[in-house]
Give the backbone structure.
Amino acid sequence: MRALMYLGTRQMEMQDVPEPQAAPGAIVLKVGAASICGSDLHGFLGMSKKRVPPLIMGHEFTGEVIECGDGVEDLAAGDRVTINPILSCGHCEECQRGRSSICPNRTVIGIEHPGAFASYVSVPARLCFKLPDHIGDVEGSMVESLSNALHIFERSVHNQGFVKSVAIIGAGTQGLLALQIARHIGATRIAVTDLVPSRLAMAASLGATVAVNVRDTDPIQAIMEMTDGQGVDVAVEAVGHAATQEQAVEVLRQGGEAVLLGLGAASRMAIDGVMMVNKELVVRGSYAYTNLDFAYSLDLISNGKIDVASMVVARDLEQGAELFETLVDNPGDLIKVALVPGG
Ligand SMILES: [Zn+2]
Ligand SMILES: [Zn+2]
């Protein structure tokens, strides 16, 4: 089969490799579409210690079941599925507390196991979620991305329906999805900041109250103006730099919550401790998602509540290596790219 093999820092090429077999409890999928994640780009740049070459990346994907291993009962050849790629252990304390995304024993398809930038991939059957017929492969490959954005709000101290105002710092895939979730849960004022005009235009078209280009506008001032000087209930940091993490705390109202999602290079933020106490601020991280987020994400996309189609473009898997170069060096208007084998 054809596979996009990661061979080392900035080295990727298409190779012919043996097709995977279905082990007991696992299935083999003919890959429908596999989206490129920001974390895959970090891996390509040699910044992800867990991605050890040679590796087939790709953890955001859909496919059609072509073979079931022994003991697989709920799936059959021909079923179309999308995959929660996180293999949590199920028995550690975090898993028992329902926090499988931070299971210390977790491994991930496309990171520790061969992923879906290939014609075929094998995955444990328990990771599969059946796709409704009307959801295409490319759209279905966005379920994983949306799960990350849902997890931000699912774990929020404000998740009882009292999120009026949200600031989203960074209008990449996660920022634009977080914007849509914020609207979905009823936020009425949402500011989005970025440097790239096309991403800000997308944010505006997806319903941002204000889309702030930080090249020419002070984001803190713009967010304060949007909220009549109060600050926001929730600030989502989807960049991963200390400076933007600090902004996320600066723009909070009393009792507000900053959620850090971006994973850039190492960062060490400075927080005004007195302000944090006086305003009873919450600062926390959000990592990946649970099965609950994943199932809800699939439901939102299936019911047309979240627009993922306008954010993603499909490209032939054979162009994968070039696309990684493009996304790292000069993404232009590209936000999300899904690789399609033979497409
Ligand atoms: Zn991802
Ligand atoms: Zn566990």
